[in-house]
Amino acid sequence: MSDSQSGYASIDAYIADFPQEIRDKLESMRRTIREAAPEAEEIISYQMPTFYLNGNLVHFAAFKNHIGFYPAPSGIEAFQEELAAYKGAKGSVQFPFKDPLPLELVRRITAFRVEENLAKGKKKRSPKQE
Fold first, then answer.
1. Which residues of the chain have pLDDT under 50?
2. Which domain of life is it from (predicted)?
3. What phi, psi does 45 have (nearest 5°)?
4. Residue 95 φ then ψ, to 5°
């Protein structure tokens, strides 16, 4: 990873900054998230690849020994049993480079977050009752 980490213009630029083996994993994450959230916009937020749909949907990022996945605390809570095998925190989980990525789980978590964010967007747009 180069020092250009201070400001990526796109997810492509972010991924290009890593060695091929890591790029392959990042592209797999990106493809899986895109399949689960085809309407989401790809942006860089918090200097991480981010999918945006009525707000931040999920983020992902590469670190020294893992790929971090950030589906918000609700995404972690809803899948906590399946995520128990991984290190994580309130709104994040770490997928070690040495292990295969749990792409089906990433897809399901992303789909869950899509439903959450779409519901959130409908609430914001609903007319006020008088």
1. 1-5, 126-130
2. Bacteria
3. -140, 135
4. -105, 110
